[in-house]
From TrEMBL:
Keywords: Membrane, Transmembrane, Transmembrane helix
InterPro entries: Integral_membrane_TerC (IPR005496)
Record's protein name: TerC family protein
UniProt similarity note: Belongs to the TerC family.
Entry's transmembrane regions: 12-37, 49-70, 76-100, 121-141, 156-176, 188-207, 213-231
Entry membrane topology: Multi-pass membrane protein
Record-level GO cellular component terms: membrane
Subcellular location: Membrane
Main location as per UniProt: membrane
Amino acid sequence: MFEWLAQPEAWVTLITLTALEIVLGIDNIIFIAILVNKLPQNQRDKARFFGLSLAMLTRIALLASLFWIMKLTKPLFSIGNLGISGRDLILIVGGIFLLYKSVKEIYEQTQTHHQDTQSNFHGGFFSTLVQIAILDIVFSLDSVITAVGMANQLEIMIIAIILAVGVMMFASKGIAHFVDTHPTIKTLALAFLAMVGVVLILDGFKIHIPKAYIYVAMGFSLVVELLNIYIRKKTHS
């Protein structure tokens, strides 16, 4: 079962796949950070832990259902000459949900007299987890398909996902705090998520936009905004 431990190429695959899983999980971390920061302070750490644990369990469950995953690529129905599969439906619905949530959050940020959106302790916490779980399924598809394409051993895929989620759990609190204390970064993050939502919808309709373009655009925008934050601090100091 663990014969691959003696194979150097298997370790290279594990390291590469773990790094890719972390990169593919960045949008998931941002989404979780924004949702969790709307909860009361004493619930945020628990929500982050459960949210990322859900992400890990979703990915492992999908990996364990490889036969089902492969069937998702078969067209269920057609719109004109375009065949729509189960995977496409998940991407379209997930993209619409992500786009709606992002635009709604941006709109709320523009309302100067917007009331506090924190829900009551019970409803807000579980409502947040449900929203995280929905997007985890969508974000997991790319992650799982990448894992299947890169590795042959199921153990390597599962270990890579566990390691990636471990890194994300370590980094998520810092990212959440940074996003929460810098409103412009939060708006930029929401704009990223809205863009990811549009990309998911297009992907569902077989219009593929390379993820590299998106990550480069995100990285460039983030660098510019970090420079703006630094300049504002220097100006007010």
